[in-house]
User: Fold this.
Amino acid sequence: MTVPKLLHIRLRSAAEGQVRSGHPWVFEKSIQEQSRSGIAGEVAVIFDGKNRFLAAGLYDPHSPIRVRVLHCGKPQVIDPSMLAVRLLESLERRRELQDAGTNGVRLVHGENDGLPGLVIDRYASTLVLKLYTSSWLTWLPGLIQTLIAMTPSPERIVLRLSRNLQELLLNQPGHQDGHMLHGPTPSEPVRFRESSLWFEADVLRGQKTGFFLDQRENRQHVETLSAGRDVLNAFSFSGGFSLYAARGGARSVTDLDISAHALEGARRNFALNTENKAIASIHHETVQANTFEWLAQTNRQYDLIILDPPSMAKRETERERAIEAYQHLAALALKRLRPNGILVAASCSAHVTVDEFFDTVREAGLQDKRQMKELRTSQHPKDHPATFRQAAYLKCIVLQSMPMTRNS
Assistant:
């Protein structure tokens, strides 16, 4: 059998500089020369304008991101052993985050852990492996063996696919979204622990990999703010912020979401934690409605409001509209906030920068004509690092409405 020669690629000068500075993506339009047609998953070797080795990565003919860079600098062999080292390093970085009280954590965060287009989340003894590029399909068997060897006896490994891959692999058995790569198919949502609270994750069909692990630290902070407060959790999904607020001593918690399925998940998560007296005794209400419409129509007031909407800008062309929507949403929430109340506003839109989002929420506070104190801003937690601009999606700001003085 004839072994095909390595795929050689030469970039346009601007893209060459980006790769040299550490950017992990090579777009189709950035390629100036290519030695031949490439196949998904093969190693592409990138040379600079002087025909010197620049980088190497995995090729994907089905994506505008043609190469996901694995290595830049001096020549290095890209093989299963090199990928195993990357995986082990990623697992080691998360070791301190996992204990008896927390067994839900992101183990691999794609490009930011040197494994571009690959995400691995742990939910107790279940691992969920999500792919964003077809490049990883040929490497899957070795990757699964390495995962089984490096992680503590995973009961199962579930394959999840990005939307574009679901369409690409529609008729390919064994490569379907929710396919079991190892172990039995779960008959119900998988239960795991976060900060000693119980949660469920729909690892087969749920959003992302089944749960939003990236908000753990912000949920922990909400717990410290909740004592004696009436709390509204808007875009509540399965009630993560609400459970922390309840354990923190909230007087009441309202979950607001347009999805009946999400609200049912919130009720189940509360039922899993009734051993905690504060959670068992709290008044927990669920409201199925469009958050924008409900906030505009209700007269109810709250002491703590959490805004954690889905991404409002999935592409750059939606950025300006998303900024306007964020400001409108914050303004609606502030009208429902009691004096001395706290607003927690988060964004997961990578196309809206940190400064743009924080300034937008601050501006809503200024227009509300109440004195607002900024308590905290935060970005990515340790298991969701952001090492390049397009990876920086998560941000959260906490503002408190200060009491009016006699001279105000």
